DNA sequence: ATAATTCTAGAACAACTGATACAGAATTGT
DNA sequence: ACAATTCTGTATCAGTTGTTCTAGAATTAT
């Protein structure tokens, strides 16, 4: 019983994501947030409790709509090695299309708010862990399918790929040029290539 | 002529660096800054013009005291390949010692303020370019000294190393564990190793 | 209809924001 | 000594911050 909510909760949380994403946690004011969400300030506090709680909800929404969706999509109907390659290629494409350079909300949060708020820090760390698990899982699967060298360390390599991914998202904020970003990724992907024998490297002993 | 400045300008700008570093550009208020600098608000505006101009000065100070100092120190009395390795090792050590997880002011700025302020964005991009140039320069030198395989692309590899470096500084904000960070770097440094022949990789054709 | 409950709009809260005004103190050249 | 100039502490500016309050509108169970 009681009066019914008049606003669309999905639209509202999406508006919050957009606002936090574009402005950052601190810079996004409650009034800006409410405007983007299409609700009044009182409704925001009534429905979410406050700015911080809203941010946690927005982060969860972002995680679902961005990397979890991408992981689910790329991991079906694709061989594991191609899933990894497609993931990184998509990040580069997204970074280049991102005209207003909002970057990745997760990465932004890892630097902006995580260090000042251990609770959110753990949430962000968990999300990053999910991405790393995607890499690790597909490396192992690719090794089983003989797509990827059997002697590389899946644990180590997944960490490397996550690091490279984060580096790209930082670089893209100041230098969103395709060649720059692809140069960062290329050596990482080469780790997954089986080494050719017919074309020996110069410089070997 | 006129009244002399009563505060130590070096101490003041160092205080500004510390404040911007710990709190971020937006969160650092002019009053907090003035306190950390040991001066009054009027002196801050008189000496630096305003918050933004002070930030640009603080960034320059930080660049000199952090990575330029490191580059100069590591590049003397060290072979080029060891200079690169030492640089990355130092970043990891610094990230682990950084108890309050301030991270790197340059990286923080690249995400916080650069996208909303193209002027500062260019400044940050230039600083990142200096670090990349350090990598490139030492890769080329190491190749000339046969320390590093001659067939790797110095342009591409320097970009990769910069990306990995930025990735580490992001990861360290949420997961400052040595093993995590070293796992990110290890495959990158392996690019610089001359490939052993006596110990062939499994999985090769 | 009435009670109970939940939502909404808008005003209000104290605290803080970057920036400026002002008066006075300190310095140098004349 | 005097004018000219520059620095400094304090007060102040209008505007914004996250949050709360108040009054009333809308809903369901009885």
Task: Kindly describe this structure.
The structure is a homodimer of 205-residue chains. Chain A has 205 residues and is mostly helical. Chain A has a domain at 59-190: Tetracycline Repressor, domain 2 (Orthogonal Bundle), CATH 1.10.357.10. In chain A, 69% of the residues lie in helices and 0% in strands. The first copy, chain A, is built from nine helices and no strands. Chain A has helices at 9-23, 30-37, 41-48, 51-74, 80-97, 105-112, 118-144, 154-174, 178-190. Chain A is elongated and about 65 Å long. At the A-B interface, helix 6, helix 7, helix 8 and helix 9 of A face helix 6, helix 7, helix 8 and helix 9 of B. Chain B binds a DNA duplex (30 and 30 nucleotides) through residues 1-7, 29-31, 39-43, 45-47, 50-51.
State the fourth-level CATH superfamily of the domain at 59-190 in chain A.
Answer: Tetracycline Repressor, domain 2
Structural class of chain A: mainly alpha
List low-pLDDT spans of chain A: 198-205
* Whole-number mean pLDDT of chain A: 94
Keywords for this structure?
homodimer; 205 residues; mainly alpha; Tetracycline Repressor, domain 2; 9 helices; 69% helix; disordered C terminus; DNA-binding
In short:
Chain A has 205 residues and is mainly α. Chain A contains nine helices and no strands. Chain B binds a DNA duplex (30 and 30 nucleotides) through helix 3.
């Amino acid at each position: 019983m009681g009066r019914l909510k008049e606003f669309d909760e999905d639209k509202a949380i999406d508006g919050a994501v957009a606002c936090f994403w574009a402005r950052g946690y601190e810079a996004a004011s409650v009034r800006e947030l409410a405007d983007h969400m299409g609700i009044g300030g009182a409704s925001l506090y009534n429905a979410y409790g406050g700015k911080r709680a809203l941010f946690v909800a927005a982060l969860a929404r972002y995680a679902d709509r961005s990397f979890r969706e991408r992981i689910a999509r790329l991991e079906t109907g694709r061989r594991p090695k191609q899933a990894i390659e497609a993931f990184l290629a998509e990040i580069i494409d997204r970074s280049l299309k991102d005209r207003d350079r909002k970057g990745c909300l997760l990465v932004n949060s890892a630097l902006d708010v995580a260090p000042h708020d251990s609770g959110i820090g753990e949430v962000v760390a968990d999300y990053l862990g999910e991405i790393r698990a995607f890499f690790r899982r597909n490396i192992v699967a690719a090794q089983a399918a003989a797509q990827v060298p059997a002697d590389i360390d899946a644990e180590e390599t997944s960490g490397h790929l996550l690091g490279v991914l984060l580096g790209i998202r930082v670089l893209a904020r100041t230098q969103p040029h395709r060649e720059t970003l692809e140069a960062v990724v290329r050596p990482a992907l080469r780790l997954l290539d089986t080494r050719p024998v017919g074309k020996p490297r110069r410089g070997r002993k």
